[in-house]
């Protein structure tokens, strides 16, 4: 027994040794900045000339800042549509492509490709495709006699366009995660279910979906976080326009911090955003837990 | 969030430096003055020895970088006391900020002039009034609006390198086919736009006049006889002049239908609506000249100063760049020599103009036939005579981008009336101006 203890101790020490560099980096580049940002959110820090403690002024100003809450409404709308669609489409793709058949790898690769493009480059190409007069999308619509909208320039369609473009770009990587998840579901479960006469839907509902719960939790959490932090695509596609319908909190934070040099206020905004992300991730965790346990 | 985190880390690392700075913020400014004197002597001594090395930061890459390097090389060859080196900084302003607190500031900085009102109060730029006076340079040789944009309080913080303003570009062929002359008034503009617009069912084939950029409101407002802000820092467009602009836009967009929202969005250079003959007239600036000239015979275009408003008021917005001396630089005197050589010398300003196809801020250089006799430059020079800078308020750009433009976009899409648009822009705009006014 004592030798086991020693071995464990030794292993533990080695383990700590191995994770030390990562933890040091984590502390230096994540924990310290977060604490700093929290402190800065109570100051009027401007990078260059001042850093005075202003108590709750920044947060009071936040409450009055209509635009900040508008941006929250925007990303909320975005998330409500984006997150479920993201899960649905990537799971659907994964189930379609989860066969060992000739050529299936080609399709997997093709579905994954958009993920590899840079967000900005892809968005630039999409601006082209979505052009009201000369874009591919409206040209195709034109063949069936529909006059397509000015996708990115109209308040009704601007956010939808961004949702579509970001979906196109993110389902690929989630599909890969789901395929991995699907391949981890033991075959004997399906076999015995089949023997018991379960239909395809039953097998999905009572085996695949519950077995994939950890995967779905991962995918949904990552998409919620990504959705609330939407920035690049929205910035390139619409610059926050038209009429502020696609402005996002991160866009505002960036602007306040770097263009207006109000780092203190920007930190306060960032903290509210971080809290919101935390809250939604927590809700997501709760929902995921409340489902029936795995088998 | 990732980007944000990196930045916070950076700030955290700089915390020591920042607090150090806030302690001696004032003494730093005073010290800067002393340093200049010291350096003045130092450069006198070093005349016989090694040249002083200066760093010049800019955010122009590619062609722009080559143009800068041409000027820097010419300067380095012209004397042997100072050696300037151009350093391309992609994220220049952010780097400049951190450098200002940590002591790595460059000696010369390429400067988007409108930023002056935000940065000068923070003592990161070195005032040049004394240097200007010592060398006996006349302020009248520069565009006064450009100098105004480089001024904060009573101090001047740099010299203008380029000046620009928008004028009306028109496609000669389209206008000739429609039998119209280049417009000089709003009414003529409207008529010319109506005659050059072509619809094919619900598809707009040729737009008569571009209304794609609501950010040009400022320019129209001047033409209507108004101005964006009052003396005491409030918005000044919820009035008759503002209404006149929006009524004009409303007519062009919804009655005359000379444009369609989103028409030009996303069209890059090769597919630019003006290049491909899908747009008859538009407001743009001298920066498009080299692009459009490339198309030669395929695109015959002319330029006229912006048409005047109903009561004959002229208006255009002046922008452009300058050169400034960061307070944190170690060689203020030498940096000034370089700036003076480039921006306040007729031959060098002209060399710069010919190299980069920009209009220099130094007026004597514009007497050259290169500008005076050129049909493309002339209208811009005429426009610059009356063009005004954006109001020098630190919150102006936020007001324009977050309050005014979004409301104008809603208006252009018929989502709200003229009255609501102006009222909301005013309320929100005044709020943003107030929130961002305090920069000290």
From TrEMBL, chain A:
Protein family membership: Belongs to the binding-protein-dependent transport system permease family.
Name of this chain's protein: Multiple sugar transport system permease protein
GO biological process: transmembrane transport
Subcellular location: Cell membrane
GO cellular component terms, A-Z: plasma membrane
Keyword field: Cell membrane, Membrane, Sugar transport, Transmembrane, Transmembrane helix, Transport
Transmembrane segments: 16-42, 75-99, 111-130, 263-283
InterPro entries in the cross-refs: ABC_transporter_permease, MetI-like, MetI-like_sf
Topology relative to the membrane: Multi-pass membrane protein
Record organism: Paenibacillus methanolicus
Domain ABC transmembrane type-1: 72-284
Major location category of this protein: membrane
Highest taxon, organism lineage: Bacteria
Lineage: Bacteria, Bacillati, Bacillota, Bacilli, Bacillales
A Pfam match: BPD_transp_1
Keyword Transmembrane: yes
Automatic annotation (TrEMBL), chain B:
Domain of life of the native organism: Bacteria
An example Gene Ontology CC term for this record: ATP-binding cassette (ABC) transporter complex, substrate-binding subunit-containing
Annotated signal sequence range: 1-20
CDD domains the UniProt entry points to: PBP2_UgpB
Keyword terms, alphabetized: Signal, Sugar transport, Transport
UniProt keyword annotation of Transport present: yes
Gene Ontology MF terms: maltose binding
Pfam hit, one: SBP_bac_8
Cross-referenced InterPro entries: SBP, SBP_1_CS
Biological processes per GO annotation: maltodextrin transmembrane transport; maltose transport; transmembrane transport
Sequence segments annotated as region (Disordered): 29-48, 420-440
Family label: Belongs to the bacterial solute-binding protein 1 family.
Record-given protein name: Multiple sugar transport system substrate-binding protein
Originating organism: Paenibacillus methanolicus
